[in-house]
Amino acid sequence: MTFRTRFAPSPSGHLHLGHAFSAWTAWQAAQSASGAFILRIEDIDTTRCKREFEQSIFDDLIWLGLDWPLPVRRQSDHFADYAGVLETLRAKDLVYRCFKTRKEILEEIARAPHGVGDVYRGPGEPVSEEEEAERVERGEAFAWRLSLDRCRDHLGGGFDRMMFHDLDHGDQAADPLPLGDVILARKDVGTSYHIAVVHDDALQDVTHVIRGEDLKDVTPLHVLLQTVLDLPTPSYQHHRLLLDESGKRFAKRDRAATLNAMRSDGLSAQHVLDGFRT
Ligand code: GLU
Q1: Measured from the CA of 6, which atom of ligand 1 is nearest?
Q2: Which of 1, 73, 134, 145 has the fewest other C-beta atoms within 10 Å?
Q3: Can you give the pLDDT at residue 114?
Q4: What is the average per-residue pLDDT within 252-260?
Q5: How far is the CA of 215 from the centre of ligand 1 (A)?
Q6: What pTM, to 2 d.p., does this model score?
């Protein structure tokens, strides 16, 4: 299969050096493999994402010398697709409604004998069907969580044999247990990053997901979703994160580190790219 990778930024601010490094790493990989590099706009969070930032992403990446095929997929144009994924998971009975507030969840985790961080391991006592129907009827807020127990039942022995290929570390076991029962959608937002990214990587025939190591922990969850949804699992690479002079990750609010500011200050793209090669 032809090598196909992507850069999938969220237009919630201007791109900074860290994004540029991520885009360039994926683009370089596609060039060396004579494959394709695609761009995808991940803007399901419509409260934070803005069209002006989307335009700035295009301008910044062109300035860096990257190119990609058109049209660019914009996730906010495809909410129905992601709702369909949630429907599929519901039909397979792998998700459940969780009515608990964040505070209640944290209290429950704190009470659990082997609680770790803020990982939620699912309701000890499931809400009965009657109670669930009543609470939905009353208009209560809820989140859809992926049940690891039900996924395990659904996949049988396959649950413990899930794997993915890591370009730097070879074949890896995909263990989603440390993440607990993750929220995949909320009553008012019928999707999440996890659903949209897994759906789109498959739809767009992405063979290699190249992204920052900050997303390494969620890769096993993505492999689990691919497995229960009968989607192919791409290969993964989690590149190092660029750090600023004080050793912190770049943030969208650091104006000086944005490509937009560098462009208007007359810096050359070559200067930025040279910094990545060292
Ligand atoms: N949209 C995500 C971000 O901006 C990246 C998703 C991914 O590469 O899987 O952090």
Answers
A1: 8
A2: 1
A3: 60
A4: 84
A5: 8
A6: 0.94
Domain formed by 79-198, architecture: Alpha-Beta Complex (3.90)
Asked whether 197 lines ligand 1 (CB < 6 A), one says yes
pLDDT attached to residue 123: 77
Q: Which residues contact 58 (CB under 8 A, 6 or more apart)?
A: 72
Q: Tokens standing for 262?
A: 């560098």
Estimate the crossing angle of helix 193-203 against helix 79-91, to 10 degrees. Answer: 100
**Tens digits of residue pLDDT in 1-49:** 799 999 999 999 999 999 999 999 999 999 999 999 999 999 999 999 9
* CATH code for residues 1-77+243-278: 3.40.50.620
- Ligand 1 midpoint to CA 20 (Å): 13
Q: Does the structure show a pLDDT above 60 at 228?
A: yes
> Is 247 a residue whose pLDDT tops 90?
no
User: How high is the pLDDT of residue 248?
Assistant: 87
Nearest residue (CA) to ligand 1, atom 4: 9
Ligand 1 pocket: which of 193, 208, 225 to mutate (most atoms <8 Å of CB)? 193
Predicted local confidence at residue 119, as pLDDT? 80
H or E stretch at 6: strand 4-7
Domain boundaries, the chain: 1-77+243-278, 79-198
Ligand 1 pocket check for 40: Cβ under 6 Å: no
Residue 211 near ligand 1, beta carbon < 6 Å = yes
Closest residue CA from atom 10 of ligand 1: 9
**Dihedral Cα 48, 54, 55, 57, nearest 10 deg:** 120
